[in-house]
Amino acid sequence: MSGIDYLLDTNFILGMLKSSPQVIERLQTRPISSGQCAYSAVTRMELLGFPQMGLAEEQLIKDTLSQLH
């Protein structure tokens, strides 16, 4: 087994980054570790493909993704 239990989509990861109340509530009711989570290549492209993204935002996304599979 890979140990991956959750495949996070773009909206969920954005919710984590923006501290969305719905995402925070979900994480509080079902605690998960970053080692249990993965994302797809499409999600990575969607997160990093926004044309008006600043360097700080890009680094935050890359740092977050580096903690996931």
Describe the model.
- There is one protein chain.
- This protein has one domain.
- It is globular and about 35 Å long.
- The protein is built from four helices and two strands.
- The protein is mostly helical and 69 residues long.
- Strands 1-2 form a two-stranded parallel ribbon.
- Helix content is 54%, strand content 6%.
Write the layout of secondary structure elements.
Elements: E1 6-7, H1 10-17, H2 21-29, E2 37-38, H3 41-48, H4 55-66
Parallel strand pairs: 1-2
Task: Describe what is shown at a glance.
This protein is mostly helical and 69 residues long. It has helices at residues 10-17, 21-29, 41-48, 55-66, and strands spanning 6-7, 37-38. The protein has one domain (6-66).
Question: Can you summarize the main beta sheet?
Answer: 2 strands, parallel
pLDDT under 50 segments (min length 5)?
Answer: none
Distance between the termini: 14 Å
Instruction: State the total count of DSSP E strands.
Output: 2
Chain-averaged pLDDT: 92
Q: Provide the gyration radius in Å.
A: 12 Å
For the biggest β-sheet, the strand order reads: 1-2
Judging from the principal axes of the Cα atoms, what is the shape? globular
Strand content: 5-15%
Helix content: 40-55%
Structural classification: mainly alpha
Number of helices: 4
Number of domains: 1
What's the SSE pattern?
EHHEHH
